[in-house]
Amino acid sequence: MRRLAPAALILLASFVPVHAQDAAVPQSAGQVKLSFAPVVKAVTPAVVNVYATHVEKAQANPMFDDPFFRQFFGGGGAPRDRVERSLGSGVIVARDGMIVTNYHVIANATQVRVALSDKREFDADIILKDQRADLAVLKLKGVKGDLATLEIADSDKIQVGDLVLAIGDPFGVGQTVTSGIVSALARSQVGQSDFQSFIQTDAAINPGNSGGALVDMSGKLVGINTAIVSRSGGNIGIGFAIPAAMVKVVVASAQAGSDRVLRPWLGASMQSVSSEIAESLSMDHPAGALITDVAKDGPAAQGGLRTGDVVLSVDGVPISDPDEFGYRFATKTLGGTAQLDVLRKGDHVTVPVKLVVAPETTPRDETVLEGDSPLAGAKVANLSPAVAESLGMSMDAEGVVVVDVEDGSAAANFGFQKKDIILVVNGKKVTDPKALNELAQEQRRLWRITINRDGQQISTILGG
Predict the structure, then answer these.
(1) Selected catalytic residue, list 86, 89, 104, 341
(2) pLDDT at residue 455 is higher than 70
(3) So what's the pLDDT on residue 302?
(4) How confident is the model over 398-433, as pLDDT tens digits?
(5) 155, 183, 193, 210: which one is catalytic?
(6) Which domain holds residue 394?
(7) Is the pLDDT of residue 4 over 50?
(8) In the 3-class helix/strand/coil scheme, how is the chain assigned residue by residue?
């Protein structure tokens, strides 16, 4: 479970006793026996523990291959692999063993094992990882018979004040249930997800609860527990869950056989509406998302969206900023049309936007760079609207981009990051992943590399 920024300490200033006339004696045995037990009994078989293991291979010194040198060091001289383990929770969403958990629980895992509530254990394959939503989908191996599942609720129907239960395996002590209420909705600036619209709850969520279930009183899944605000790592009553609407999108992509999440593509850039912008547009208050650029031939352009428009709602649901728009738009079903309420030069207009995936105008040609260069271990691909959308990058980005960096690789050690666009290597312009891989396998002592990172061009000289 990730720790967020330190929370402010709130002191209880006074205690107001309940007056006798406000208290009430239970009027029936049923009122005395009110319990969450029926809901808990129904849902806990579908909540599992997830054990992820990451093995980082040690870099062996060539001299250990020589019997002459090996005799001086014995069997203990060679470097050992480094093993990292993480513990989280998950939710069974299909009877054949499909499980949803957090991306950060299994991000770098080389092996995943899942323990069910009845103590059975299974190995699991990672069939889809979506860092943008901090969600992943696993599939159990060797499952026989139907498994208990949780039905995914309509998270748009939950309200602040609704009772909820958080279920998971905090601190590895065993399956635990805590109760609370929905404290707030559409919370942003939480964790590392690109889609900032979280359910906040005061139900206790602790390390190990990541990927566990947040359920309503009908036993349906309303969210996947993902983060807390804490000083010490323990619960202080501020926890966050990814709404079920986003979970549905990820599960649907996995069930369709895709290894990546398919989401609607807008084809436009946005920014928040500040007080100054709102005043200049004669708006009563800052709200919505201001369109700053529109991609040629994208869904936004085809629907008639223009630079300077302010999007106020999606299918009648008001949005307060680009984060909320991103969540609302990303959770729409592909194939239809979203109706955007837009403020344009003081008038309200409706703009229909087709819900289609971003096109892959250039083949990805994903390649893991090899050789002894500082770029070795980086996975790169050709940029296209589809790749840019999957990485959360600017829609006009072009070139060869880093889509992943292997832990412990030269690329990771030299500080290369996902979304870096490789422009020039040793004076030669990078044109495609294949050409870059050939450049990366040259034998050199010094490497001159130029990249674009977040719009800033950076040139560096590195030792090979």
Answers:
(1) 104
(2) yes
(3) 95
(4) 899 999 998 889 999 999 999 999 999 999 999 999
(5) 210
(6) 367-463
(7) no
(8) CEECCCCCCCCCCCCCCCCHHHCCCCCCHHHHCCCCHHHHHHHHHHEEEEEEEEEECCCCCHHHHCHHHHHHHHHHCCCCCEEEEEEEEEEEEECCCEEEECHHHHCCCCEEEEECCCCCEEEEEEEEEECCCCEEEEEECCCCCCCCCCCECCHHHCCCCCEEEEEECHHHCCCEEEEEEEEEEEECCCCCCCCCCEEEECCCCCCCCCCCEEECCCCCEEEEEEEECCCCCCCCCCEEEEEHHHHHHHHHHHHCCCCCCCCCCCCEEEEECCHHHHHHCCCCCCCCEEEEEECCCCHHHHHCCCCCCEEEEECCEECCCHHHHHHHHHCCCCCCEEEEEEEECCEEEEEEEECCCCCCCCCCCCEECCCCCCCCCEEEEECCHHHHHHHCCCCCCCCEEEEEECCCCHHHHCCCCCCCEEEEECCEECCCHHHHHHHHCCCCCEEEEEEEECCEEEEEEEEC
Out of 189-193, 298-302, 327-331, 397-401, pick the least confident. Answer: 189-193
How many domains, in total, are found in the chain?
Answer: 3
Is residue 315 domain-shared with residue 373, that is, in the same domain?
no
Name the phi and psi angles at 345, rounded to 5. 55, 45
pLDDT digits (tens, 9 = 90+) for 227-278: 877 666 666 778 899 999 999 999 999 999 988 898 999 999 999 999 999 9
First-to-final CA distance of the chain: 36
Average pLDDT for the chain: 85
Q: pTM value? A: 0.78
Percentage with pLDDT > 90 across the chain: 59
Q: Tell me if residue 315 is catalytic.
A: no
> 429 and 281 in one domain?
no
Same domain, yes or no, for 118 and 182? yes
CB atoms near residue 187 (< 10 Å): 17
**What is the CB-side half-sphere exposure of residue 359 using CA atoms within 13 A?**
9
Which of the residues 86, 89, 130, 134 is marked catalytic? 134
Last residue of a domain, one of 260, 290, 309: 260
104 catalytic per annotation: yes
pLDDT at residue 105 is higher than 60: yes
Active site annotation includes 19: no
Give the residue-averaged pLDDT of 8-17: 30
Give the residue-averaged pLDDT of 441-460: 91
